[in-house]
Amino acid sequence: xTAEQHATPNGSPRAVSxxxxxxxxxxxxxxxxxAVASAEFVSRGYAEASVxxxxxxxxxxxxxxxxxxxxxxxxxxxxxxxxxxRLHERVIAAMADSAGDPEHALTSFGIQVARIWLxxxxxxxxxxxxxxxxxxxxxxxxxxxxxxxxxGTLAVYLREQAELGTLAITDPDAASHQFGMLAYGDVRxxxxxxxxxxxxxxxxxxxxxxxxxxxGYAASPKVGQPG
Length: 227
Hints:
- By secondary structure, this protein is mainly alpha-helical.
- The chain is 71% helix and 3% strand.
- It contains ten helices and two strands.
- Strand 1 and strand 2 form a beta hairpin.
- The longest helix has 28 residues, at 137-164.
């Protein structure tokens, strides 16, 4: 008799249920389902996306998907929520990797975040969110919440620099928004339109943005400039 069996009253072995799968396995399966769903939504759009096809490609039943996500809309929202969480983690990491003086820190941060917007999944879901936001207001909320978290990460750094006196910033949140539009707004627009953006393009745009930003928020006038 194996460890997986117990004896029945008549002495014959009886199979024992393996029990629930570990939480790590469940989490991994959900991530896999969302990854497959993301690819389906990006490649086919919301209207043409098929939960049946997602289930087949993910190797699960439709019942498994609907038990967790009761509708295709709920599945799309889960996909965008999961992407937003991953993007925020990458933005936090980018800010953590940005050290040194503001010019170096902002350049490093801007380049890393601009590269994030070039990902096929990221830009594909961003297109979808914009297109479907009118029908599904929750998508617009997800986008706004995501951008607020992006900007909040940078705003913390800008607030610290203002307190140190290195930058003259009275509204770090607004300044963070301005920097984002300068540093990666153009890159994101080109990616949305399917244009090719190289690392050289990103570096050029971000360095120009940093130069404008730091001069605009300089704690003291530059030499040769009017006071």
